[in-house]
Amino acid sequence: MILVIDYGMSNLGSIRRALEECGGDVLVSDDPSDLKNAERIVLPGVGSYVDGMSNLKQRGWISELNREVLENKIPLLGICLGMQLLSTRGYEHSKTDGLNYISGEVIKLTPTDLNERIPHVGWNEVYKKRDNPLFENLNDGSDFYFVHSYFFWPDNTDSILALTPYCGEFVSAVNKENIYGVQFHPEKSIPVGFQLLKNFIHRV
């Protein structure tokens, strides 16, 4: 069972449909106690880092997530804001502590030429830094769909799974043990995004 966390920060319908089309048995839940039955966890997110962490805390998700992800090693995939919340801290609006599952910070993209716009919206290439089951059967440099103004830079480069050429270069996927994050939206990145979701469901 794949549990998609409903903490008031995402369009859950498109994520649910994408996971179901990729062969997942999906439960979208606003009840943290449902995590104990999950075989995979998806943390989606659209919006600000401050609001994301506030909602996770107020709705009782953090202690349950810590137990299932850190202690029981259930695979977790953070998408967009969900990836950013895996970090130690973020600086959107104000300095805010994150989940600290992967050490690092979330900072704002900075244009390197006049053609680069913030937020970064649209299709862009994703280049793998190392082999990983999450990117199995995907060509290096595949295009995925992005919508964001901030990005996650891990302290340890071993946690960087993929990079994207924009504003110089930013981290577009991370991994540490059973914890994964992607800055792009796989549910909007057909067909490559669906292959990535299949890999998360069946391979990681």
- Cα distance, first to last residue? 14 Å
Main β-sheet: number of strands, strand sense, barrel status? Answer: 9 strands, mixed
Write out the strand line-up for the largest beta sheet, numbering strands in chain order: 2-1-3-4-13-12-11-8-9
The global form is globular
Please tally the β strands and state the result. Answer: 13
Question: Level of helix content?
Answer: 10-25%
Mean pLDDT: 97
Classified in CATH, the superfamily is Class I glutamine amidotransferase (GATase) domain
Q: Which stretches of 5+ consecutive residues score pLDDT under 50?
A: none
Structural class: alpha/beta
Structural notes for this entry:
The longest helix has 11 residues, at 192-202. It contains 5 helices and 13 strands. It has a single domain (2-202), classed as Class I glutamine amidotransferase (GATase) domain (Rossmann fold, 3-Layer(aba) Sandwich). A 9-stranded mixed sheet has the order 2-1-3-4-13-12-11-8-9. Strands 6-5-7-10 form a 4-stranded mixed sheet, covered by helices on one side. It has helices at residues 12-21, 49-58, 62-71, 81-84, 192-202, and strands at residues 2-5, 26-29, 40-43, 76-79, 89-90, 96-97, 104-108, 120-128, 142-148, 150-154, 160-164, 170-176, 179-182. With 204 residues, the chain is of the alpha/beta class.
